């Protein structure tokens, strides 16, 4: 187990000076890289590491790596003072502290913080805007004693600006790069959180998903992502796309770390009414109890052929997943194979399903509501965002990407008959498709390659967890395996994902030394 213990501030200065992240003394050689939350908490307990030292290490990692990776859009000038407070509390406390106490966290730059950090969705249109309060999930992080290290980059407006804008790109953050291979897709929109935690620029991160925005970047950057049931985590204070589909979830290096974050951020928030209904799914005792090595035993897992169509002609990937299926069986799972979702083509076609039409209307309504609630902002409506972009496109050197999606959204006029019909169709597609499949075959979860099932999970507000599943042997890119289930099935999904992770232990840190790039 990689565990970091920094023995003194003098040694820390040596680390920061020489950039090694490791030291050799009378104790074994150890490293902060890949350290888990439990590792770090143990080091805090043994008084071989302080939160201040940990924050300094990550700030140095960001200084060395971020200029090439673009995972972090802004660092928090108050991070060290927050770390000092955590260190003082730890010294004075005589009881067990929360799991994230003193742990640095990066937030996707659409999650509001009432502090010196900006919240912009990667757009200069919201630069120096002032939010009225912390996002609901941020309030919970602060109460746990976590250190807000900064904001992670993203695909601008959560990839709702333009069809032509590449994944991982924003006006403020430029282009994010995959830490495993610069020529490989980084995916989005939560690209920055995935890049940053994969490259060891932070301990844990928070992303958001509307359709694939946690599952896809987690898969492409060899990390763990949890897309919670919609409403399980508060969206209050999060720059919205679709309140019907938006959810906030962790992106971390291990399932256990992601579960520690999930336990911290779930729960009722009076500013997000969906959390009251979803709170019924939160288990007594939290989610950590489901981190079980035997979690696959007896689980019925559905293998839907469509979710593996993209790899059927790739011998390496096909053989890899045959091996993974064997592992799942050896761990006690029952695989129900060769399944079909009868209406899958209609679900995956966002024009036919109505998903895109409803999202356009929902985005305009929700964004205008968010902007009107700001204390101060250069823009107060979607139409003003569009006008701002027109006036600044040459300065930002982004005229080639345009803003066609924003303009389509601006043309909508509320949730009219067209949108209501689309909503009804989405409910029908979900009920007669994925939900029927799960019920008819008594499945605990479905299994998919990478983000293949993201839309199926998105339109019904269902949860999913992606875990590293390998690295392509010739094209050298990471890929993940996704486990998805019905609303509130996080306990089962955690058992399944954790047991798979522990049985395979696939993740390795990025091989490229980006500090030398």
Automatic annotation (TrEMBL):
Top-rank lineage group of the source organism: Eukaryota
Organism of this sequence: Rubus argutus
Pfam families in UniProt: Amidase
InterPro entries: Amidase_dom (IPR023631), AS_sf (IPR036928)
Keywords from the UniProt entry: Signal
Positions of the Amidase domain: 54-387
Signal peptide: 1-21
Protein name per its UniProtKB record: Amidase domain-containing protein
